Amino acid sequence: MKVICDRGALLEAVNLVAAVVPVRTPSPQLSCVRLIASRGPQGAELTLAGSDGDTTLLISIPQVDVTEPGQALVPADKLRQIVSAEEGEPTLTIEVTGGSDQVHIRGTNAHFRVLGYPAAEYPPVPDFQSVLAGTGREAPKTTFRHPAGLLLQLVQKTAFATARETSRYAINGVLLKRDGKKIEMVATDGRRLAVSRTTLSGAGGGGGDKDKGASVSCIVPGKALSMIQKLVYEEDAPVRIAVTESRIYFAFDHPGADNNKEAANDAPRALLSSSLVEGSFPPYEDVIPKDQDKKIVADREELSSAVRKAAVLTNEESRGVRMSFSKSEKRLTLSSRAPEMGEAEINVGLNSYEGEDIEISFNPAFITDVLKVVSDPEVIVELKAPNKPGLIRSASNDFVYVVMPVNLPS
Fold first, then answer.
1. CB neighbours of 60 closer than 8 A, spacing ≥ 6?
2. Whole-number pLDDT of residue 163
3. d(C-alpha 160, C-alpha 163), whole Å
4. Which of 65, 82, 86, 187 lies at a CB distance of 3.0 to 4.6 Å from 158, suitable for a disulfide?
5. pLDDT tens per residue across span 46-88
């Protein structure tokens, strides 16, 4: 194998793929990045692959000159260090000679000989076209296409609410549901719940949309969702998604690709594959309150700023901010108090208020988290009673957030 690469493009790809590679693993091959240099009808490209056994990422670089196609297996940490160190080089040459476990990386004045492993020892990497065609290990239950920016919004509005450490593995990921053209993502950690919805745009299929009316649900792990947020370059570029019985695939197409155009034979810029989380997601619809009788409309930025200020004087023992809503003054008063620290009081005007006065307390982090992902300038808050969950939603109702109150000493 011999290939000349644009160093900047190579470094970007190496950093992305290395994020999937495990730091510690009993299999030394999994600590490596697999390099695949090829020439085809679409031109020359270098594909980098990394995997931890559950999550696999492939990134293709077209800014290359492939003199000799082939493969190599290079330790991810050393590859990243070398490419980063050669910061003054416009290009780098990667060559395999004297055995497939020796990789030479050359710049203008530097030569690195890295000991790797035979490429054949690396686990098979997924092929998206085989997945779509149903010739892989599992036939897809559903395939669809969606703009990358809208997929990113779904992820950002839910992933923050997933459980970090729990024995209930199902809530360590985000529920993804498709019902015809309706897409929904749901996350919870047991104390809060985030639901984001959208409608598939365009033709929708992942390349041959044979199942427009397909209904499917699966739980996507947090690591895959974190990678999705790093892989979105252009918001209008389409992402093709396929769900099988045990895995999910996200194929990120090249910028400029048409979201409504069939792309079954096009190789993606990046392919993210992940095992699905086993288990049953909680019946979240039952958690969303339907009988709130107090409705508040507030400026999102002002409310977020006030909550952050009130949170300054809280501690682990008094991790809560008291929120007092006044109908007559159309005002929200936020107060916090921590022993041996002091107390704070912040007043915020409300755009509108319907219902009786109420005083309720929330963990301030749970409020600021959601206000970061709501894109509307105004936010709607609905309440029932001090011991009942609060609801925060967008005006279009495509995003709903439920949060449990906390008990504070009087």
1. 45, 46, 47, 267, 268, 269, 270
2. 86
3. 9
4. 187
5. 999 999 999 999 999 998 999 999 999 999 999 999 999 999 8
> The pTM is what?
0.91
CA distances from 250 to 80, 224, 232 (A): 24, 9, 11
Q: What top-level class would CATH report for the domain 139-284?
A: alpha beta
- CA dist., res. 220 & res. 275, Å (int): 8
Range from 137-146, 255-264, 289-298, 347-356 carrying the lowest mean pLDDT: 255-264
Going by pLDDT thresholds of 50, 70 and 90, the confidence category of residue 186 is very high
Domain residue ranges of the chain, discontinuous segments joined by +: 2-121, 139-284, 288-403
One-letter amino acid at 244 equals T
2-121 and 139-284 have identical folds: yes
- The torsion region of residue 244 among left (phi > 0), alpha (psi -120 to 50) and beta comes to beta
Give 250's strand partners.
241, 272
CA distance 259 to 203: 8
CATH topology of domain 2-121: DNA Polymerase III; Chain A, domain 2 (3.10.150)
Instruction: Please spell the DSSP secondary structure of 320-333, one letter per residue.
Output: -EEEEEETTTTEEE
What pLDDT shows up at residue 209? Answer: 46
Q: CA-CA distance, 30 to 20, in Å (whole number)?
A: 10
**Which residues are bridge partners to 175 per DSSP?**
186, 219
User: Buried b vs exposed e over 307-337: b needs ≥16 C-beta within 10 Å?
Assistant: bbbbbebbeeebbbbbbbbeeeeeebbbbbb
Residue 221 CA from chain centroid, whole number = 9
- Greater confidence (349 vs 171) lies with 349
Q: What CATH architecture does domain 288-403 belong to? A: Roll (3.10)
In the chain, count of helices (H) and strands (E)?
Answer: 7, 26
* Nearby residues of 116 by Cβ (< 8 Å), 6 or more positions away: 32, 72, 73, 74, 75, 101, 102, 103
What is the Rg, in whole angstroms, of the alpha carbon atoms belonging to the chain? Answer: 25
